Amino acid sequence: MTKAAQIPGAITHAADSPPTPPPSPAPTSDDETYDICIVGGGPGGLATLSAAIEPYSKDKMGRDNVKNAYASGLATKRTAPKVCVVDPGDTWMHTWHERFKALQIKWLRSPMGAHPDAFDVNSLLAYATSTGRAHDMFDSGVDVKKFRTVREAHSGLLELPSNKLFEDFCQDLAARLPHTFVRGKVAAIQGPDGDFSVSLEGGRKLKAKAVVLALGVPGPAACPAELVKVPARFLFHSDDKLGGRLQELGSARKKEVLVIGGGLTAVQVAQLAVKKGCSKVFLASRRPLVTRHFDVGEGWFDTRQGSRNQSEFFDEPLEKRAAAAKAARGGGSVPPLYMRGVQELETQGRLSRKVGEVQVTSVNDDSVEVTINGRVQKFDLIVNACGHRPDCLQLPVLRELQRVEPIEIVGGFPSLTPDLQWGSFKQLFVIGALASLQVGPDAGNLMGLSRAAQMATDAMDINSFSKYKNSNQSVQGWYQTNRFAEAFDSDSDSDSDSDTDSDSDGEIEIERAVEIPCAA
């Protein structure tokens, strides 16, 4: 039987913290019944834990409401829910840590304001300051003139944290939130709504009133059809074994490497291959690399425009939402910091970049020959860095849910309720990239994860802030149609310059990115 680790801890914050709610009682071997079971120990699971445990979020309340919350004793009147978190890793952020370590990623792409703490958007910045780690923050290069009226542009929230700072912050946050961490892999979720049985591989069962699935990637690894014929000894996906196979780069027999992909991961793999001493590194993509600071347009997290984008997105039919989510991400993009590195390596002759289709010509005993734009090249190793394709039914847990409670699948994504529930289950939620149709194109990044976690926990009706704000309405009633319309109405009179607009057909126009041509 897998051992569960009880994580004690009071909820404390650097400033403006509410009184600490009573900790959940420690479970015994005969007591594995929880209020909430979170499946996934990554940033999405941590964001859900924070949103569930915190009595309210001061970011989502006006100053007067925060004062009233303190005065009325919302935090002290509420007992924190009993929560367990299930993940195959032995600690929080295991998958994240292994993948980032494999790629030797130093800086996050998401800014300081993007993190799992539901209480305060400034908490990562406060953590960096209080621990003397200003050196772990990097100027993102975002044009602050675009955000001159937004406080994030002048408070450091648009700077980039180092991955080490972010991971340390997440471990610190998890240690302060009472919960039980269970190492295991979920095999099935069964039982009636509100009385779920979460079965783990090996036979162990957990009981929970509510379940949140924070599963990470929305489907299997994407593989171009032309690569299917290549044996595994010459080809792997960048995520294989949580990035473990990247160790093969630069080995005695793996010196000539082809990396296929048009996004940030492909660039990171190519740079890693050069760093590991590969004698020939080619980066091939179907279209020119696109440079953009963040994985979606800046307007999606600009507080002046976010509600507008979300409101317009939510009002579209599901098919258009799926198309808009794909368009907003643009098939992958590369931040300027990494693009400069690519161009430097090209200038030095250590990296070649090609745009075009890759065709496998022959598979030899010790190499693979491919044709790129009519020219034959030989490689010892091919790394597929094309990401993951949305196909939720390839995930066993969701495939079983679909059998029990069928819902519409659009573009590989499940059509959840506006509160991110699966079908008629009112206490079974899905967040992360799998919730793209309901959250938006940023559903899989840190900003979208935090927003989705708040949406799910609001719908559970356990959040003191939701009860305070909506004392005469149920949370689900308040969010019955377009949850972002109210916020959009409140900020639609902004006199700021907008970089996202609606065209005459009502489509969401995506921020224009810059294509970087290959070196001659």
Number of strands: 22
Structural class designation: alpha/beta
Taking the sheet with the most strands, its summary is: 8 strands, mixed
The mean pLDDT is: 80
Number of helices: 16
Given the C-alpha coordinates, what overall shape results? globular
Helix content: 25-40%
- What Rg, in angstroms, do the CA atoms define? 23 Å
Strand-residue proportion: 15-25%
Give the low-pLDDT segments.
1-30, 69-73, 464-520
* N-to-C span: 60 Å
Domain FAD/NAD(P)-binding: 194-295
Organism: Triparma verrucosa
Pfam families: Pyr_redox_2
Biased composition (Acidic residues): 488-508
Written overview of the protein:
With 520 residues, this protein is of the alpha/beta class. 28% of the residues lie in helices and 18% in strands. The chain has 16 helices and 22 strands. Strands 1, 2, 3, 6, 7, 8, 9 and 21 form an 8-stranded mixed β-sheet that branches. A 5-stranded parallel β-sheet has the order 10-18-11-12-14, covered by helices on one side. Strand 16 and strand 17 (375-379) form a beta hairpin. Helix 1 (43-53) packs parallel to helix 13 (446-460). It is globular.
